[in-house]
Design goal:
The protein is an all-alpha fold and 84 residues long. It contains 3 helices and no strands. Helices cover 83% and strands 0% of the residues.
Length: 84
């Protein structure tokens, strides 16, 4: 009994984390993209050939999709926990 409560609390926390990612996907994506662009510049200055960082729109879509995936996964796990 206690184990299922702990699992449900973890899934609710995961759901809230996913919702935070969805709500703030643009600032998170822009921060990560800025870091990626700096890393690409550093590697290129050292003579390494690396692909370009993704576009801003692509980064926004990736983080939104990641947040939605986390939310959906948590909802499925919560549904399964309540219907078993």
């Amino acid at each position: 009994m206690e184990h299922s409560i702990v699992v449900m609390v973890a899934d609710v926390a995961r759901l809230l984390f996913g919702l935070l990612i969805v709500a703030f996907h643009r600032p998170v994506a822009e921060f990560v993209l800025q870091q990626e662009q700096q890393l690409v510049t550093l590697f290129r200055s050292r003579g390494l050939r690396v692909p370009n960082a993704p576009t801003t729109a692509t980064a926004h879509n990736i983080y939104f999709g990641l947040g939605m995936f986390v939310c959906l996964l948590s909802l499925v796990r919560l549904w399964a926990a309540t219907h078993s």
